[in-house]
Design a protein that fits this description.
With 417 residues, the protein is an alpha/beta fold. It is built from twelve helices and 24 strands.
């Protein structure tokens, strides 16, 4: 699907969609708990549906209902289930150790760029604890149950490795410890995991990069939980507020462990007025000035921060970004290509982007099948001189299927071509 839009300021109020980061974790823990859990979330996405499908394959019962999902926990794990993770890295890396904790054998597959995305360090750690793999990349079959004990993981490749083990190890009999061998990047995503575990009664102790997990823990359903509003996707519309006219997003928790609420500090660094109150954030336009932002802990913000940099006076430096080459696309390359296609000026470094303020002209942008590139290009249209066309705009379905509906609700004029 290709979508075109003419430049128009976005203005008004929308509600945040459910955080897929929070939803993945709560769905998995609900499936691992006894009894029923009702998760309140207004809208789902392809990635969330991938996790739902895999949990069903493992033996959980999940029933979508108005305003959420009803989950009945796994009573008996399926034998040799097939888990199709689609293009969801979270689904794959979270459920790989969980399935190995539940099943003697499990089959995994996935699509898009997922078979190319790194998982080797997690597989190595699992191989050292009783699990073997039929291949070193998807599709493959796991054999053998996961054992507890002492694990060592790098913290600078993917925080999802650590999350997957934190979700699985409480199910085992033995005490387990996970030691990080490098600095943990994207630490806020692990905070989301720890918060979710606490909500289901599981205990993890952390001290100086070592996580201790007692075995034989009961995962206890709290009955009903509301999935957090999504700061990662709200960031696009908050950025639009700095570019054209005031935009307010409701349903955002300022106390959320989601790291991408750092968009507020980033907007302030650019010089945009930000008004944050309980459950609501508003951003207004102002002359923006280039700045330096470290995206090591918030890599998903880089595409929209690059758009802000293109609209700002001077240079914007987005650093500590090497891991973005391993996302749904090589995001340093695809963001650079997006900005150049729109008339922007950007220099791509091995681990950073230098974005220079420029009058964006508009043009055709290839999404690279990456949801965040498609959304960033749409927000960039606000400050372009001419029409913007996004090729492969349906990539937004991965995390935000109603993105263009909300875009138009705020005054945009996106239409399928």
């Amino acid at each position: 699907m290709n979508v075109s839009m003419m430049p128009a300021p976005l203005n008004g109020t929308i509600s945040a969609i459910a955080s897929k980061s929070d939803a993945h974790r709560l769905l998995i823990l609900a499936a691992l708990s006894r009894g029923e859990t009702r998760l309140v979330m207004e809208r789902r996405s392809e990635d969330i549906d991938a996790t739902i499908g895999c949990l069903r394959a493992l033996g959980a019962q999940l029933s979508p209902e108005s305003g959420g999902v009803l989950v009945r926990g796994i009573e008996q794990a399926a034998k040799n289930p097939l888990l199709d993770c689609k293009e969801s890295g979270s689904t794959f890396r979270f459920l790989l150790p969980v399935a190995a904790a539940l099943c003697d054998r499990a089959r995994f597959t996935g699509g898009g760029r997922l078979p190319e995305r790194p998982v080797g360090e997690l597989m190595r750690a699992m191989e050292e604890h009783g699990v073997s793999f039929s291949a070193d990349r998807l599709p493959f079959t796991t054999s053998g149950r996961l054992n507890g004990g002492d694990y060592a993981l790098p913290g600078n490749v993917s925080s999802q490795y650590l999350t997957g083990l934190l979700l699985a190890l409480p199910l085992l009999k033995e005490l387990s410890r996970i030691t990080l061998t490098t600095r943990l990047e994207s630490a806020a995503y692990v905070d989301i995991t720890l918060h979710a575990l606490t909500r289901f009664g599981a205990e993890v102790r952390e001290a100086k990069g070592v996580y201790s997990i007692s075995g034989g823990q009961a995962i206890v359903s709290p009955g009903e939980l509301r999935v957090d509003g999504d700061w990662s996707n709200a960031a696009f519309f908050l950025a639009a507020g700095a570019l054209g006219a005031p935009v307010r997003v409701t349903g955002l928790d300022l106390g959320s462990p989601q790291g991408d609420k750092a968009i507020l500090d980033a907007l302030l660094a650019f010089g945009a007025p930000v008004e944050a109150s309980s459950g609501s954030v508003a951003v207004s336009p102002a002359p923006l000035k280039g700045c330096e932002i470290d995206v090591g802990d918030t890599p998903d913000l880089l595409p929209v921060l690059a758009v802000l940099g293109a609209a700002a006076e001077g240079e914007t430096l987005l650093v500590n970004a090497a891991r973005l080459r391993l996302k749904e696309s090589d995001r340093l390359a695809s963001v650079s290509a997006m900005l150049r296609a729109l008339g922007g000026s950007v220099t791509e470094l091995p681990d950073a982007l230098i974005v220079r303020g420029a009058k964006l002209t508009g043009g055709a942008v290839e999404s690279a099948r990456d949801h965040r590139i498609a959304m960033a290009a749409a927000i960039a249209s606000v400050c372009c001189k001419g029409e913007v066309t996004i090729l492969g705009a349906d990539a937004v379905n991965k995390s935000y299927p109603t993105f263009f509906e909300d875009f138009n609700r705020l005054g945009g004029n996106a239409h399928v071509v």
